[in-house]
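> run fold Methyltransferase domain-containing protein
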Amino acid sequence: MLAQLPPVLQSLRLPLRLKLWDGHEFDLGPKPQVTILVKDPQLITQLAHPSLDELGAAFVEGKLELEGTIGEVIRICDELSEALLKHEVVDLPVRSEHDKETDAAAISYHYDLSNDFYQLWLDRDMAYSCAYFKTEQDTLEQAQQNKFDHLCRKLRLQKGDYLLDVGCGWGGLSRFAAREFGAKVLGITLSKEQLKLGRQRVKDEGLQNQVKLQILDYRDIPQDGRFDKVVSVGMFEHVGHANLALYSERLFGAVREGGLVMNHGITAKHIDGRPVGRGAGSFIGRYVFPHGELPHLSMIAASISHAGLEIVDVESLRLHYARTLKHWSDRLENQLQAASTLVPEKALRIWRLYLAGCSYAFAKGWINLHQILAVKPYADGHHDLPLTREDLYR
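> ok
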């Protein structure tokens, strides 16, 4: 029976066990920590060149089962893929057309899954973006509050400022800015489920006079410079490379002279934005974020600059996002039974791989997260920012 395994698999030394559909088992190294249960005989030949998107797809489609902690599953499957795909060739991706209908459908696919499902593993404010850990001991709840505060401080938010929150999600940042900094906020989203719950939370906190949430595409943002500050969290990843210039122009047109614009989003490792991770990026595009396209820092920075905004501060939070996703993954793994009652089995499989896999990807440096602060200078070129960052950390 051993001869039926591709020879390249027999030569590996990984803590991995293969269980075949007929009951036979093969250890690929001592003390297996992860087991791949192969249910489809055709997968055996595929395992000789296991890209991460093919392994992930097989799990999502129920053609194989994975045994072991999800973090170890991701790590060992990556080591398997790396050992057998040492000279991976990655083609440049085909870029998507991003019109309003396509973007709305993609957002609905991801964010309208189930508010109850998201509540199982997000923090109480349902901040679905990178947290900010001031210490190793910070809880997820504290780190997300830190993130809100960090963003508002970078924006030098003041009482009475009119803030535009682009891609506001469930409104956690919008409510924080109103409650803690006295801002007036317009939050916009394309997700109907997010809007429904977000508005309810605004009402529950008595913030109706300060916070308005609505469905609005970034292409339709008012262009009369009415906002003092603009914040966009986890948004430019959905815009598409072809529309980054338009997106940046809309932010420029929305903010007054002297106003600040904060872009917080995931960025690509490679300048051309091609995916990394031996197919991991393809898996995300297929199952998690349809039409999502990560720009390199240089690409989004160029777009922001060409629109007329001056970049004044850039900060990488890559390791913060690895930690955030680890929290999310652990919380979901502890709620699998409850989660199985809220979303289809296929969706749950996708999300288990997605959260743990992205934590691994950020830790490995396959992707990054940058906060990019820009100002819209006055006509004579000056702005009101302080000379140092001291005020951020007082």
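The two ends are 67 Å apart (CA to CA).
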